[in-house]
Amino acid sequence: MSETHESGSDKPWLRWGKRLLTLFFFIAIPVLLYLQLRNTDWQEVGSALRDYPLWMIAAAFGVALLSYLTYASYDLLGRYYTGHRLPIRQVIPLVFVCYAFNLNLNALVGGVALRFRLYTRLGLDVPTIARVFSLSIITNWLGYLWLAGVVFAAGWVTLPEGWAVGNGGLRLIGLAMIAAAVVYVLACAFSTRRSWTIRNQVIELPSWQLALVQAGVGALNWSLMALLIWLLLPAEAFYPGVLGVLLISSIAGVITHIPAGLGVLEMIFLTLLQDQIPRSSLLAALIGYRAIYFLLPLSIAVVTYLVLEKRAKSMRSTNSQQEAA
């Protein structure tokens, strides 16, 4: 009884603490971004956007498509992991919709609510969906740990003076990330306990071979996201540095709970790269990245979602008629 009372009394404090922290970031991020942008020459930014050659725009769209397909493979790994038999042609558009909504809104909408709704409508049971979802999350962040660990430990990102972490601290964080990723793979290979029950859902460790595939696929997706930005930057941009800044901005976006990391991404890129890349070129690349990787896929995802809902409704109607007959 005492344990229940204590956990119940803690929850309101935690809930209000998260709300206040989120409110703080919603106020602080726009203010900091304004301070970064107040002296920007927007005509130069517009000129940089207009100067992109068609081949570069086409290449950026190609990288974005490849990234979305890579993310869709997370759930294809989940299909193999759980053994469910939904056709691949149904899984890929479903994951595309979830990813686009996840990026632009938040993980609860795209990652959880839509995924469970759409999979359920296709006949998948909740425990299987939960296992697919958990494997997808682990794949994403396992790839992040490997990639960020290498980038940070190698010293490819230089932090401004005065940052509390410091460049030495960032390298130590990178080594810790690599260690955490290695521990997961070793657990998958040698752990005698293979399953845990969390909130009435059974989570099972995959094989070590699948864990390595998870790491590779997750790292590939993060690499492609950075590649898109790098393509839109001037030739002097250092790809590993761009990758490192994207990885830092992504985790900052998760911490701040701001949808799409709006403002967070821009502020961190400006802070870390404005001494290496002209501000107008940097802003043009970030605007292009937002348009190609976030906004356009979201508009397509809305239409795709409506089609999936209509198709699922038609399938349920057909099944009901068959059962009645």
Automatic annotation (TrEMBL):
Q: How does it sit in the membrane?
A: Multi-pass membrane protein
Please provide the record's keywords in A-Z order: Cell membrane, Membrane, Transmembrane, Transmembrane helix
Q: Which GO terms describe its cellular component?
A: plasma membrane
Location relative to the cell? Cell membrane
Spell out the Pfam families in the cross-references.
LPG_synthase_TM (PF03706)
Residues annotated as transmembrane: 20-37, 52-71, 91-113, 133-157, 169-192, 212-233, 245-270, 282-308
Q: What name goes with this protein? A: Membrane protein
